[in-house]
Amino acid sequence: PPATGSIAGIVGAGGNTGAVCFGLGFRQLEAKPAFYLMGGCIVASGVLSLFICIKGHAGLVTGQDNPEVIAAYKKTAGAASATIQVPEPDAEAAEEMEK
């Protein structure tokens, strides 16, 4: 297809490996099988994401959050309201840098 580079770029946006693999898929295959390959990979990765488990956190369909995680979330009132603090400059380190 004429938009092979664009399609490979969109699908491979998560990393260069995906872009290269799908670019090669479109180069080596006809358009229809290449799109089936791309769609199958996307569906398979979506299904496999159901089984991702991170220790202390609930999965998409199973488990529950660790009480410490829940307490930390409530303490910060969610990630949206958390602010980043800029550290104060170290006066002693600045003096040593000037020497």
Summarize the structure.
It is built from five helices and no strands. It has 99 residues and is mainly alpha-helical.
Kindly describe this structure.
The structure is a single chain. The protein has 99 residues and is an all-alpha fold. It has helices at 4-11, 16-28, 31-48, 67-76, 91-98. Helix content is 58%, strand content 0%. Helix 2 runs antiparallel to helix 3 (31-48). The radius of gyration is 23 Å and the shape is flat. The mean pLDDT is 76.
Helices and strands in order:
Elements: H1 4-11, H2 16-28, H3 31-48, H4 67-76, H5 91-98
Largest sheet: none
Terminus-to-terminus distance = 62 Å
- Structural class, from secondary structure content? mainly alpha
Low-confidence stretches: none
The percentage helix is 55-70%
* Average residue-wise pLDDT: 76
Overall 3D form: flat
Radius of gyration using CA atoms only: 23 Å
Secondary-structure element series: HHHHH
What share of residues are in beta strands?
Answer: under 5%
Quick tags:
single chain; 99 residues; mainly alpha; flat
